[in-house]
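Bit of a strange request maybe. I'm writing a small parser for structure token strings and I need a real example to test against, not something I typed by hand. Could someone generate the tokens for this chain?
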Amino acid sequence: MNKGELVNAIAENTGATKKEADAILSASIETIVDAVSSNEKVTLVGFGSFEARDRKAREGRNPKTGEKMNIPATRIPAFSAGKDFKEKVKD
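Reply from user aminoacidic:
Good idea to test on real output. This should exercise your parser:
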């Protein structure tokens, strides 16, 4: 499912117009991205949590040459599925 299909599903489930559903979805995504990039954790009970995690510096290899290289430490976004979400997917 892509964003357009998700917008259509939201509009159908809520009775909102596609334009309203798109605006709400876009605002929701933007709010989550802004919060996580500001080092806040966003928890949606039953769905999951979004947060920023630190990835340590490590040694890797160039896949073309096999040469060793250092991969610097970085910050990445992460999602952890909630219990209800995991159970729904499991069944």
